[in-house]
């Protein structure tokens, strides 16, 4: 079992920044990818970013956040971060972190088997 707890969400004006944190506990050695997903009201949950947990920290982003969001990790703290800059109203959503032991798919919801409870990010115009 892996437990994930997100923090850092809040209300920010357009153009502002937030940093989300995802603290992991439990069988963290089984985590191959840690990903961030988001779900806006009335929309499906979507992939935002992912990072490989061990060795080389390969990172992946959905097109709409490239250049604005940065995912990073601190393995000593078992924590993954999502730095979000130049936020836009369309970034408003509940943000979830998730982990998977599946090395073949970093962006598919179905490949992730552990999820946090989510943290709300609201960007005002």
Task: List the defining traits of the structure above.
four-stranded antiparallel beta sheet; globular; 0% helix; 125 residues; mainly beta; 11 strands; seven-stranded mixed beta sheet
Describe the structure.
With 125 residues, the protein is mainly β. Helices cover 0% and strands 51% of the residues. Strands 2, 4, 5, 6, 9, 10 and 11 form a seven-stranded mixed sheet that branches. A four-stranded antiparallel sheet has the order 1-3-8-7, with no helix packed on it. Strand 4 (33-39) and strand 5 (46-52) form a beta hairpin. The protein is globular. The protein starts with a strand and ends with a strand. The mean pLDDT is 95.
The helix/strand series, from N terminus to C terminus, equals EEEEEEEEEEE
Distance from first to last alpha carbon: 40 Å
For the secondary structure, the number of strands is 11
Structural Rg: 13 Å
Query: Uncertain runs with pLDDT below 50, 5 residues or more?
Result: none
The average pLDDT value, as a whole number, equals: 95
Q: What's the shape?
A: globular
Helix/strand/pairing category: mainly beta
């Amino acid at each position: 079992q892996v437990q994930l707890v997100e923090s850092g969400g809040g209300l920010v004006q357009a153009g502002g920044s937030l940093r989300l944190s995802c603290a992991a506990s439990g069988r963290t050695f089984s985590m191959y990818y840690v990903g961030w997903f988001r779900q806006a009201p009335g929309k499906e949950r979507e992939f935002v970013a992912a990072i490989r947990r061990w060795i080389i920290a390969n990172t992946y982003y959905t097109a709409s956040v490239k250049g604005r969001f940065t995912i990073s990790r601190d393995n000593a703290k078992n924590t993954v971060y999502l730095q979000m800059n130049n936020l836009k109203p369309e970034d408003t959503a509940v943000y979830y972190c998730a982990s998977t032991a599946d090395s073949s798919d970093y962006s598919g919801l179905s490949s992730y088997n552990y999820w946090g409870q989510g943290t709300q990010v609201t960007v005002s115009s």
